[in-house]
Amino acid sequence: MRAEWLKFRTVRGWVIAALVAAAAVAGFGIAGGDQGTCYGNSCTQLTGPGGEAVSDSFYFVHQPLGDGVLTARVTSLTSTVPTPRRQSAQRVVVPWAKAGIIVKASLTAGSPYAAIMVTGGHGVRMQDDFTGDVAGPSGDWLRLVRTGATITGYVSSDGVRWTRVAAVTMPGLPAEAQAGLFVTSPQYTQTSMGVASISGSSSQSTAVFRDVTLTRSAGLEGTWSGTNVGGPSGGAPGPATGYSRDGGDFTITGSGDIAPVTYGPSGIGATLVQTLAGVFVALVILTITGAMFITAEYRRGLIRVTLAASPRRGRVLAAKAVVVGVVAFAAGLAGTALAVLAGQRVLRDHGVYLPPVTALTQARVIVGTAAVIAVCAVLAVAIGTVVRRGAAAVATVIAVIVAPYVLAVPIPVLPLAAADWLMRLTPAAAFAVEGTVTQFPQVDEVYAPAYGYFPLAPWAGFAVLCGWAAVALAVAYVVFSRRDA
Fold this sequence. Notes:
By secondary structure, the chain is of the alpha+beta class. The chain is built from nine helices and 19 strands. A hairpin with a 6-residue loop joins strand 3 and strand 4. About 2% of the residues have low confidence.
């Protein structure tokens, strides 16, 4: 081990490569925040009760409510989007258009809520505080029951037999909340299956409510009034957002969405991973260094000297792998720690919203990324041992390690399904350790590796890379033991 470490540190180019790799990760991470005060949708961001980025824009016909029961029947829900040529409304199905009843802490956007609704393409749902989502049985009769801080949702197909969907507790719900009917209509999205892209246009939805009843505790009174919570958002040509009433029937038109905001082409534009743009540079440098650490000895004929001094070839291979792995891990750890910690501060100082993450998640990203770089470097040593020639080893390293990552993440040119499988089966799967964003089934988005959504759990993806490295080292050991130096 000492002999291999001495070889590494006495070759100035390899030492410089390790330092440059660490500096690249740190430098790109800090420079990543130098993008002006804000950009894309990363400027001032509305946050929900848990600090997560949210969208909260809908039309709300409401009254004050303490304890009580709100019931309504949704008899129709239609959605429209503008057409490019005629600029007139075209009827479409917006899967996450919502019409239903809601109890909300206040009329302020981002405040806590619980709602049960009919959607354009996902049936009946009960949702709360933006991230909660429970599917319910089919039915057009909806009911919310408030008892203190607990809101319980029910659905019925006939208004007689009711099925409980879910109950949520909302600590701090004021004694006088707002309850009523709502309609919201998010962007109408069309995802291209060829590449990781999404296109869409604003939408507007109109719902008809019948048999609306509100029974509440004594001491509270009110009349129905309409509010565009969060302001108009995404309206299509057609009726202005608002409502009309005919006796007990309400027709309501709304736009916008009540949902968490995702990271992707139709969501916000920055996450913790943005600080790790330099990891790719470090990965290339250190994997090539790992391959050259063994191939250089073959090229110069020094492998014979090495084996004369240490005849046990397995120990030689292990020592080289350990030295390269430790150096790569140290360089990666120093670079990623500085990039993540300082890079976040720079981004926030420039007004960029970053979704909140726990200290444990930050530690996993920092240590996990350094470990990925280290194991990739060890894999490169194994490849170099098998291939022997420097140019061929570098080409193989790029094809096996670098290319899958490039095709699936920074340059998403593959079909979504192909990118998904690359991130499951190739060494690039290990970059799941950088995942910090959540996929929400109630939001249409491009959930692809290019936007930080990985098909495997963080450490499961890392295990795939370790499997590749273990197999490669086993093959390298067999080849190294049987071939002449």
